[in-house]
């Protein structure tokens, strides 16, 4: 059907539409069923369809998938009810590209108030929409950056407060620990000297009490050493040394029992490290594993290396660390033991990081993993 015959059938007078069908507008006219009977040059340009391809078609030809069925149903209900509709529509052109148009659809009625046709007048707002999307994306990114920055500031502030508090605690604890160190050493020395003589005169119950006293002295020494290590800020003194020699020395500071088997690695590696400090790390981790086993189980210490790192693993067959404690395990003052300062693992982490390495923990089975650079 040609343009002229279509307009005549609808009793349209082009002169009556001159104000509406201005050259700058993207305009179509459809009959009362929504079939396109007129499309101006601007509409053909933006849709990339020719006039011949558009005539006789429904606007569904241009659906982009952006809008829901409810959107189109509401639009049709509005105009078929004789009311104007205003809104923004995203359409798909013939070549698959998308464009946005700000649209006004006007129902035109005859003298009996029956709808004769619909006139749609549009303005291209694609660039504005693209700019709006870019601005929204930039705003979203900025919000995310602000949230991230706020979280970092809060974390840093918390760390500063924590470090200041720990520094004060460390100074006070160091003074107290120094004051206790000397009398405790005397007590430990005399207890060791008297052990053979006293044990020969004690019954089983009193022997148990004597061993408990010895163990308590051992615990107090370990606690004081932890506090002093935490308070010290000495630099590390690196030398090349055998890891197995460090491990054997650390075993002298491990309190074990007959029900616990400790497996040492068969291979060895030379570390460039502060011998005394790494010895302290290993004795701390092994003592923690002994404590977790509660008198029965197995501790496996393994050693592996690649071109960059030495990996040391201390694995125990204990019940594991509760999930809620996993994230707190390296926090100062956190401990699940009845005795202890909660500083042992903090000191271990600090020493390992001083060496340029890292320490982590995993469960099932509980495994502490240390990675040190070669």
UniProtKB/TrEMBL annotation:
Domain Histidine kinase: 175-374
One Pfam match: HisKA
Superkingdom to which the source organism belongs: Archaea
GO terms, molecular function: ATP binding; phosphorelay sensor kinase activity
Protein name (record): PAS domain S-box protein
Presence of keyword Transferase: yes
Lineage of producing organism: Archaea, Nitrososphaerota, Nitrososphaeria, Nitrosopumilales, Nitrosopumilaceae
Domain PAC: 83-137
Domain PAS: 29-58
SUPFAM superfamilies per the UniProt record, alphabetical: ATPase domain of HSP90 chaperone/DNA topoisomerase II/histidine kinase (SSF55874), Homodimeric domain of signal transducing histidine kinase (SSF47384), PYP-like sensor domain (PAS domain) (SSF55785)
Source species: Nitrosopumilus zosterae
Keywords, ordered alphabetically: ATP-binding, Kinase, Nucleotide-binding, Phosphoprotein, Transferase, Two-component regulatory system
UniProt keyword annotation of Ribosomal protein present: no
